[in-house]
Amino acid sequence: MEFGLSEEQRLLQDSVAKMLEEKSPLDHVRETAGHWKQSAAVQAALTELGAPALLVPEEFGGLGLSMLDAALIQEALGGHVSPVSFTATGVMAPVGILASGTDEQKADWLPKIAGGELRFGVAVSEKTGARLQAGITAEGGKLSGQALFALDTADATHIIVADRDGRLYVVEAGAAGLDTQDLKTIDRTRTFRELTLKGVTATPLDAENEQGLACRRMVDAGRIMLAADTLGAGQEMIRQAVEYAKERKQFNRVIASFQAVKHMCAEMAAELEPCRSLVWYAAHAFDHVPEESSLMACHAKAHLSEVGRFVARTATEVHGGMGFTDLLGLHYWFKRIGANRQILGGPEAVRAEAAKLQGWGEVA
Known about the structure:
It is built from eleven helices and ten strands. The model has no long low-confidence stretch (mean pLDDT 92). The protein is an alpha+beta fold. The radius of gyration is 20 Å and the shape is globular. The longest helix is centred in the middle third of the chain and has 35 residues. A four-stranded mixed β-sheet has the order 1-4-5-8, covered by helices on one side. The protein has a four-stranded antiparallel β-sheet with strand order 2-3-7-6, with no helix packed on it. The protein folds into three domains: 108 residues, Butyryl-Coa Dehydrogenase, subunit A, domain 1 (Orthogonal Bundle); 90 residues, Butyryl-CoA Dehydrogenase, subunit A, domain 2, CATH 2.40.110; 146 residues, Butyryl-CoA Dehydrogenase, subunit A, domain 3 (Up-down Bundle), CATH 1.20.140.
């Protein structure tokens, strides 16, 4: 079986990459991330390219494309460490609404997501590993509790929240009883918030959500996007390491001529390149092989977390002391990969999930 990108998918990826080269250079990332905010200019350019409409079906004014198409966009965003909201609004929110929204909810929200009128954040981290006393409970149509590491909520108009049982609810960003606090992580290119809800009125997404399957689909989609983001970030770190090695001289020779440096660059490429097919297949399985979707999302997330960390560390070592300076800005990719490793479950927890999915029972 031959598996590769179609001409349309290659054109999509090229279009997004060219836009990001123009709209999201490192200087713009520095300026935006320095204020812990998202880039309105890059977000507008993404919307113009149709990114928020990507997974919205054509009947709701979207493009009706696939998770693989979304992964290609996310890979490009990771490669440019672009400070924009795509994972939540463009991917996880449409997946959740399509999986468990009523016909009226789909007709109301999906066209507005596609057109960029609404931006959705997501708060589902407690379903992948609750911290302290965090967790959301629902009673009488109102939500109470805490949700940590809510993704892409800084500029959101609505937030999809999962309760302890995996049921999904939509909360307006300015709802009474909702208190938000910025969470400053190592990754300044994305926004995370802690949500505290006290009797917040919420709209349930409960048309078809038996045993929290809709929430499961959202988490799977998010993990695939994080893996694709790490893939793009890792590829860019390798490119920068190779270019630096071709220019940096020691003992009157470029360091790329030293065998040890060659081996470091070759090992990075050898570790990362097979990950591309893993991410592509996980995205393909999400749409076309549902029985493998959750397992492949776990594999992609866990494996890219480990390989990404190796690439980030090794690429920084190739740069020597310069690798830690803000002048090069390599730390933006390093930290992005580090955050991707932990969001929606660290590799150890995700591998434990994969083991349970394969019937191996409880894992110590």
